[in-house]
Design goal:
Blueprint lengths: L2 H22 L23 H22 L7 H6 L5 H4 L2 H4 L2 H30 L14 H30 L17 H4 L10 H6 L18
Helix pairs in contact: 1-7, 2-6
The protein binds a DNA duplex (16 and 16 nucleotides) through helix 3 and helix 6.
DNA sequence: TAGGCCATCTGGTCCT
DNA sequence: AGGACCAGATGGCCTA
């Protein structure tokens, strides 16, 4: 187990994970399913980097359609995949009964909302790309909730590490010599406090899966391909 | 097959 | 008035 990853897991489990687990149950962290949501071309079950590129491609694909969606909000990849359920205008649904003016407005709003959600997803992808843990080859694309939770805890860890570094600098500035690799001031956090994610990409998924805060297998990583 | 995650549509509300 | 934001509903896809 990589110390940084372990710390991250501990951090997650310690506050947010526990909190959300209580609110949503284990399902909130069910990485195991759904990460291949949609057709294989949309969310292939590949490492994060591949997801990012595929996501971008998907986003661009949708974006390309968006221009025409302004005129026909239902003529999207998703709409076509979904079939007639939402294809009201083409199958005599509620929207088809509305005046052309209202229908046009509704389609415009739909397209705008779609674009907004795509932007939101792009931002989430950007967030995933800077979360160290998300790049392990054996870890599937993080879900939205997991991305936010990891990001939050990563920020907290960085802040904590920064604080410890400041303490260390202050300690050194007092003219003290360090006799151990980790001064007493850093003892509670160990080396990982300074380098919370060092070597995280080298850690196996199995290692990441083995432990969470409570020392039991983490539901966060039950999606791992390589079992512990 | 159930559960999880997601994209999209939709109507409401708030803001500019 | 138009756009942004939000939450509920719906249905598709995937995994265990």
């Amino acid at each position: 187990m990589n110390a940084g990853d372990e710390n991250l897991l501990k951090s997650i489990s310690n506050d947010t994970l526990l909190d959300l687990t209580q609110r949503y149950g284990q399902s909130a962290f069910g990485f195991g399913a759904g990460h291949g949501t949609g057709s294989p071309g949309r969310y292939p079950l590949t490492p994060a980097a591949d997801f990012l590129s595929s996501q971008t491609a998907k986003s661009n694909e949708s974006g390309g359609e968006q221009t025409s969606d302004d005129d026909d909000g239902f003529d999207t990849l998703e709409s076509r995949k979904r079939g007639s359920a939402f294809d009201d205008d083409k199958h005599g649904g509620p929207l088809a009964k509305k005046p052309k003016e209202q229908r046009s407005l509704r389609l415009s709003i739909n397209a705008r909302e779609r674009r907004r959600m795509h932007d939101l997803n792009d931002a989430l992808d950007g967030l995933r790309s800077v979360i160290p843990y998300a790049h392990s080859p054996s870890v599937r694309k993080l879900s939205k909730i997991a991305t936010l939770l990891l990001a939050k805890n990563y920020i907290l860890m960085q802040a904590q590490a920064l604080e410890e570094m400041r303490r260390l600098v202050s300690y050194l500035n007092q003219g003290q010599t360090i006799t151990s690799p980790i001064p007493a001031a850093l003892a509670p956090f160990g080396q990982a406090a300074v380098y919370p994610f060092s070597g995280s990409t080298l850690a196996t998924c199995a290692e990441k899966c083995t432990t969470n805060y409570s020392g039991t297998p983490s539901s966060l990583f039950k999606h791992c391909n390589d079992k512990p």
